[in-house]
Amino acid sequence: MHADANVTAEGEIKALELKLPELIVHGDWDEYAKHLASDYLHTRDNGHVEDKDEALASLRDVKRKVIVMEMEPADLAIRIYGDTAVANAEFTIRVRDSGQVKSRLTRLTGVFVKRDGQWCQVAEQETPIGK
């Protein structure tokens, strides 16, 4: 099976993959939540799996020690399979971790489905990239 040649869908996913990190950086959790499927699963870089409610609660937690300040994507690859899309990118992420600014490289893979004419993310996997 090969990915579909669908320039329109690829553009829509690319725009969403650029928008979601901005929503995280700006802390716009209500808008971010609109782009996640009700059965969304997030696999953190430590292997812990969160459902949508857990992921949003973690992001909304005002006492969290790690605050995302910037997410810069590179090597964004998108494959479309009908109403399903898989996006993979490397992100340079700057965070404030317990008061210290740190940078890290992470590979993110996201799975999206088109429901009622809109793309939403159903799964995401983080993998840290060693230095």
* Low-pLDDT regions: none
User: SSE string, helix = H, strand = E?
Assistant: HHEEHEEEE
- CATH C-level class is Alpha Beta
Name the structural class. Answer: alpha+beta
Distance between the termini: 34 Å
Strand portion: over 45%
Helix content: 25-40%
Q: Write down the overall geometry.
A: globular
User: What is the helix tally?
Assistant: 3
Radius of gyration: 15 Å
Largest sheet: 6 strands, mixed
Going across the major beta sheet, what is the strand order? Answer: 2-1-6-5-4-3
Highlighted features:
single chain; 131 residues; alpha+beta; 3 helices
Describe this structure in words.
- This protein is an alpha+beta fold and 131 residues long.
- The protein has a single domain, classed as Roll (Nuclear Transport Factor 2, Chain: A), CATH 3.10.450.
- The protein has three helices and six strands.
- The protein has helices spanning 7-26, 29-34, 52-60, and strands spanning 36-43, 49-51, 66-81, 84-97, 100-115, 118-128.
- Strands 2-1-6-5-4-3 form a six-stranded mixed beta sheet.
Mind sketching the topology for me?
Layout: H1 7-26, H2 29-34, E1 36-43, E2 49-51, H3 52-60, E3 66-81, E4 84-97, E5 100-115, E6 118-128
Parallel strand pairs: 1-6
Antiparallel strand pairs: 1-2, 3-4, 4-5, 5-6
Task: Produce a short descriptive summary.
The protein has 131 residues and is an alpha+beta fold. The protein has a single domain, classed as Nuclear Transport Factor 2, Chain: A (Roll), CATH 3.10.450.
